[in-house]
Each structure stands twice: as structure tokens, then as C-alpha cells.
Specification:
With 252 residues, the protein is mainly α. β2 (22-24) and β3 (28-32) form a beta hairpin. α1 (39-61) crosses α2, α2 packs across α6 and α4 (118-127) crosses α5 (132-142). The chain has helices at residues 39-61, 77-91, 96-113, 118-127, 132-142, 159-176, 181-186, 193-205, 216-219, 221-234, 244-250; strands spanning 11-15, 22-24, 28-32.
């Protein structure tokens, strides 16, 4: 952490009451008590919570003329969570089970809103192959602050995939348009994608500062550019037109 955000400003605290595995503010990351973390989990939490959520809050706090960019709001949630999940993706921290959990939570939210109660949503996760403890924690996330008898849900988890698609598309567009500097603006505080374009003149004029801290994946611009460039190219390949015989011919 210190190599990206120097000064030992990030405190890690164990929280027995936390519904999610971790939650981050500008200078504090809370981790749920009794939770075990795999190697992938640790790297995901580092990239997601510290190098996006804490980092953008600190960058926003450093804005001399618009320190409110350090604050989160419902209107910025999709972009923030999408950016954090994008960070997992481009840093190589994400794995298929993480994507599966994100997708299953959207299905669970839809089930709860459609009338499924806590037990029914829990069973939905179990039938999808999640372990009991993980199924319970995923269900608990969906029913945070709402009745457990169905018809209501805490829907925040539904924006992770939406945000990931939007942020990934934004970076691909920025690369193709020769405007990758907009990605740096996005890290200068907690903002929505629309804010990046609205505030661009103020970054250019120097009224707003660029990000004080950058995550490793954004610091390595050449690697990020290569990832995005190939992604843009591969998007033109129509998989339905690919036949196995083509691979056999490629080996001759």
C-alpha cells in the first residue's frame, strides 16, 4: 500500500458487524471479522478497496477548490464500483468465481424484489454451488436494512456489473479517441463518468488537480494501452462465425 499511497495513512480495522467482506473510506479499510481470504481475495480487496475507493477519496480530499470530490454519493456508486471491479480485471486480480458471485447477486436481488424471502434467496445461492457460509453472506448483503420476507432488497450489488461494462467501455473509447488522459481525471476524486466530461475544462485549466495517487495499473500506461487495444480489436471477432476447422488449418 505504501508504494502507492505513502505515509501509512490507510488503517486496516476488523469489524464484527460488517455485512460485506470489506469496506473502504479515505483512510480506513474495514474487514469483516471471522472472514478468511484466499490469495485472490487479498489482491482483489487491495485493488478494489484501497487502490480505487480509498485512493479516489484521498485524491478528492486533496482538491483545493472542490474537496467534495472526496465524498461518495448514490449518483457515483455505479462508476465507483465499476471502476473498482475494472481495476481487479486489468490488474489480473479477478477470477471466475468472483465474476460468478457478482452475477449471482444480481439474480438474487431480482428474486428478492420478485417476492423471494431470505431462505429462498439463500437456497438460490446454494443451488448455484456457493458454500453455505458464502450463500448466507451473499443473502445478508441483499437484505441489508429491508424486511426479510420478500419483495424488498438492498440493490447496490446490482450496479457492479453495470458499472464494469460502462467503465470498460469508457476506457476503450478513450483509447480509440486518443483521450486516455480522461482515465486519469476519473481517478482524481469520486465521480461519475458524466462528471469526467463536465469537469474536463477545469482539469485542463488547472482549476482541478490531477490525481495525487495512481493505482499501479494506471501508472503502467503502456500495459493498460496494450490491454485495451487488444480488447478493442478482439471485439470485432464474431465468435459465431468461428469454426473448429479453422484452428486445424492454422496449425498446418
Amino acid at each position: 500500500i505504501g508504494s502507492v499511497i505513502p505515509g501509512n495513512v490507510i488503517e486496516i480495522r476488523v469489524d464484527p458487524h460488517l455485512a460485506s467482506k470489506a469496506a473502504a473510506g479515505a483512510t480506513r479499510v474495514r474487514v469483516r471479522d471471522g472472514t478468511s481470504f484466499s490469495r485472490f481475495d487479498i489482491e482483489q480487496l487491495l485493488q478494489h478497496e484501497v487502490f480505487v475507493h480509498s485512493l479516489t477519496a484521498l485524491n478528492g480530499r486533496a482538491q483545493r477548490k472542490l474537496a467534495s470530490l472526496s465524498l461518495g454519493a448514490p449518483r457515483t456508486t455505479a462508476t465507483q464500483e465499476g471502476l473498482a471491479t475494472f481495476a481487479e480485471l486489468v490488474s489480473g486480480a479477478i477470477e471466475i468465481r468472483r465474476l460468478e458471485r457478482i452475477a449471482l447477486r444480481i439474480i438474487g436481488i431480482d428474486a428478492a424484489l420478485s417476492g423471494a424471502d431470505f431462505i429462498e434467496v439463500f437456497e438460490l445461492f446454494r443451488e448455484a454451488g456457493q458454500p453455505d457460509v458464502e450463500s448466507f453472506n451473499s443473502t445478508m448483503r441483499i437484505f441489508r436494512g429491508v424486511p426479510v420476507d420478500g419483495g424488498s432488497a438492498f440493490t447496490k450489488d446490482a450496479v457492479y456489473l453495470q458499472g464494469l461494462l460502462e467503465v470498460h467501455t469508457f476506457f476503450r473509447w478513450a483509447l480509440r479517441s486518443g483521450r486516455l488522459e480522461l482515465g486519469r481525471h476519473l481517478l482524481a476524486g469520486r465521480m461519475s463518468l458524466a462528471d469526467v466530461f463536465a469537469l474536463e475544462p477545469f482539469f485542463v485549466a488547472g482549476e482541478l488537480a490531477g490525481p495525487q495517487h495512481l493505482p499501479p495499473w494506471m501508472s503502467r500506461t503502456n500495459a493498460l494501452t496494450a490491454h485495451l487495444a487488444f480488447s478493442v480489436f478482439a471485439n470485432h471477432i464474431v465468435l459465431d462465425d468461428v469454426v473448429p476447422e479453422a484452428f486445424a488449418r492454422a496449425g498446418n
